[in-house]
Amino acid sequence: MLSTPVIYDDKVFVGVGQDPEHGEAPGNFWVIDANGSGDITSTNAVWHLGGDEINRTMSTVAIADGIVYIADLSGFLHAHDLETGERLWTYDAFAAVWGSPFVADGKVYLGDEDGDVVVLQHGRELVELGEYNMGAAVYTTPVAQDGVLYVLSRNRLFALEVGATP
User: Fold this and answer.
1) What is the distance between the alpha carbons of residues 117 and 122, in angstroms, rounded to a whole number?
2) Does residue 15 form part of some domain?
3) 0.85 exceeded by the pTM?
4) Of 78, 68, 115, which Cα lies nearest the Cα of 96?
5) Which range marks the domain in which residue 43 is found?
6) Strand residues in 112-156 grouped as ranges (E)
7) Is the residue at 166 inside a domain?
8) Over residues 70-83, mean pLDDT
9) Mean pLDDT, rounded, for 110-124
10) Contacts of residue 37, Cβ cutoff 8 Å, sequence gap at least 6
């Protein structure tokens, strides 16, 4: 496991992946009820994605307003219902994703290996607000604070002012 587990509402959200040198392959994503002890993988599973549903991931999930955002190494960002695991939508970045999605101010930010940062509308429908190229790979998670989006590319740190719409 390379991703950092997230604990939210007495549940553990965790994706399973391998070093990117191992390439793309099917992965697993688990939501586990944290109120147990011992090996609770099967006894406390709330919902699970595996096989063709998700690829290997190194990303930490983002959770907001009943939606779980999960990025995988193959470049897909999946939005799922927090309670049921139902897939709401999938965005294809067309490039490997090493970082994690970040949700702030009604937007979802995600960087990719081609150096693009996509800005999506947070919600149950897929709405792309914009995509911006940083000139070098973005292996980390973009972070927004006080109207500024911070993006670390392979060779630069950007501080971008963000408004109501990109």
Assistant:
1) 15
2) yes
3) yes
4) 115
5) 6-161
6) 116-121, 128-133, 143-145, 148-152
7) no
8) 97
9) 98
10) none
